[in-house]
Amino acid sequence: MQVHSRSSSHRGALLLMSSVTGHQAHKNLAAYGMSKAALEMLAKNLVIELSQFQININTIAPGATLTERTVNDAGYEKTWSGLTPIGRPASTLDIANAALFLVSARARHITGQSLVVDGGWTSISPSPF
């Protein structure tokens, strides 16, 4: 592991994981959604503290994603395929690619932002419940 001092010219990036529930309210998800919205505000506030050190901070807000947990949930993929405008839930690779972009040099002028990766779900926001 290489350690860089504050005086280093090395640029850094912090990435926080939020959720689309930080952007859309849903029944029984108030505490979860509030915590995710708080992470996004934390990122914005940390811009003030970290930009002077050439550190970008952003969040990713994934929507429905096929994971080890959700693939075992009967009907998850079918339900979210019907609710997501792009026609399918995200894969973990979709989320990873967004994360890799935000911590890459290609995103060096992006900071204090949240990238929603949800296949368009927040555009219409139907509840699965």
If you had to describe this structure to a student in words, what would you say it looks like?
With 129 residues, this protein is α/β, with parallel strands linked by helices. 34% of the residues lie in helices and 17% in strands. The chain is built from four helices and five strands; from the N terminus they run E-H-E-E-H-E-H-E-H. It has a single domain (12-121), classed as NAD(P)-binding Rossmann-like Domain (Rossmann fold, 3-Layer(aba) Sandwich). The mean pLDDT is 91. Strands 1-2-5 form a three-stranded parallel β-sheet, sandwiched between helices. A two-stranded parallel ribbon has the order 3-4.
The side-by-side strand order for the widest beta sheet comes to 1-2-5
Q: Which percent band covers the strand fraction? A: 15-25%
**What fold name stands as the CATH topology?**
Rossmann fold
- Average pLDDT confidence is 91
What low-confidence regions span 5 or more consecutive residues with pLDDT below 50? none
The CATH superfamily label reads NAD(P)-binding Rossmann-like Domain
Q: Specify the biggest β-sheet.
A: 3 strands, parallel
Number of domains: 1
What's the number of helices?
4
The percent range for helix content is 25-40%
- Globally, the shape reads globular
**What is the level 1 CATH name?**
Alpha Beta
Order of helices and strands: EHEEHEHEH
Named at the architecture level, the CATH assignment is 3-Layer(aba) Sandwich
- Total DSSP E strands: 5
Rounded Rg: 16 Å
Find the structural class using helix and strand composition: alpha/beta
Give the CA-CA distance, first to last residue. 45 Å
